[in-house]
Write a structure and sequence with these properties.
This protein has helices at residues 3-31, 38-56, 59-68, 75-91, 96-119, 122-143, 149-157, 163-185, 201-214, 251-270, 286-300, 304-317, 319-322, 327-334, 351-366, 375-387, 413-432, 436-441, 446-455, 465-473, 480-493, and strands at 222-226, 232-236, 239-244. It folds into 2 domains: 3-144, no CATH class; 163-493, Neurolysin, domain 3 (Orthogonal Bundle), CATH 1.10.1370. By secondary structure, it is mainly alpha-helical. It is globular, with a radius of gyration of 23 Å. A 3-stranded mixed β-sheet has the order 1-3-2. α6 (122-143) crosses α7 (149-157) and α10 packs across α11 (286-300).
Amino acid sequence: MSATWDQIVERLRELSDLVAAIKLMHWDQATMMPPAGGAARARAQATLQATAHARFVDPEMGALIDGLSEESLSNEQEANLRLLRREYDKAVRVPQELVRELAEVSGRAYQAWTEARPAADFSVLEPHMVRLLELKKREAEALGYEKEPYDALLDQYEPGMTTAEVESMFQGLLRGLKPLVDEVLDNVGDPPGWLGDRYDPDRQMAFCQWLVSQLNFDVSEGRLDISPHPFTIHIGPGDVRQTTRPDPDNLMMSVYAAVHETGHALYEQGLPREWADLPIGSPPSLGMHESQSRLWENQVARSRPFTDFLLPQLKERFPEEIGMVSPDEFYRGVNHPQRTLIRVTADELTYNLHVSFRFELELALFRGELSVPDLPGAWDDMMSEHLGLRPDSVADGVLQDMHWSTGSFGYFPTYTLGTIYSAVLFAQATAQLPGLKAELRSGVTDSLLDWLRENVHSLGYQHDAKDLIERVGGGPITPEPLLDYLRAKYSELYPSA
């Protein structure tokens, strides 16, 4: 190893430490922090983010990167250098003052969102959103792009993908998905009553704690807590934290949120520990990350083999509430499709319709076709077009997600990209693991996790997500594997559809 490489690694370790502190602050804000601490927390996070940015864009770092490019490197070092150069070139384009202001404004905006949603009052968030959109447009201009500003923001979450590619992917998916949704929902009745019965939140949480361990989440290196919006965060090696949200009127929401977040957490726990502070030690994209959570939540935990395992476990803990439910009823119940207002509670058949119109709204905002004050009305119109529903309140409309309050424009499409990736991965895993269904029926997921470790987790960021999925899938990425999976599943559940 060269002296130049050693100096770069030491600087990257310092940056990792700063990022770990920022992440820990975020976790605390979502789980423990009293509401009155919001302003001070936003300032503290902004200070750390500005400090981390300044350390990274230090000209000495640039000189070290230039020096390393002239040396003889291993394949691993070459991969790190490629990613480091790409991130450095982007980072130096964004002024430090803009980084600080984005952190401060997004921190205040998130706190405003936590107040606006319960009050069902968009005006509480609106001025923060206006300023945040202005800043994100400035950031996009600073970063640079080939065709449109949204490209720059999308690249932060899904490197290697362009807006045009994602638009084409969504168009292909919607062409097949909308007719399927209409066909299936014409044959579906009301959801079974047991889904909406009351379930003790403490017992829900205890069950979720058991379930995430059953799925091989290592609780000696992680934890499961409660937050208003379920999430997973990797603080550092040996510290992966996830949350769920027990709802006394919706047992399955907390259960499947826990499974979803466990998919994220297993990915983080499966990344090579020796690459922890290096660029190649991270997942290649949010879409890749979402592929793991969607695969575990839907293809695994909503499959007939796994629901046959899950039901007796639930009956043991909730005998009065769910004791009379049969395996057939349970399988149909946890896969019951319906048009709903809320994205996070949507079933897998309709979920991507929620994502698609959020993507369209983001494009309109950044193409200058929509302003923030008009966003609530545009949201309602889009929801009506895609799902045939109109929310009675902005709490169930434009305020239901936290993403825009944190400045996470470009994030939403990664949910659907991840869902498409998950279908490709699970199809390949199923073909290569002939005993998988039998294992899932027994609640055993070791073989599947080992397959994911080998084909996804252990690779870190050696390839962009697009390249990785094309390597595993053996061809270009299309929505067809996802559509095939949904058609097969729902034709079995509702044969007349």
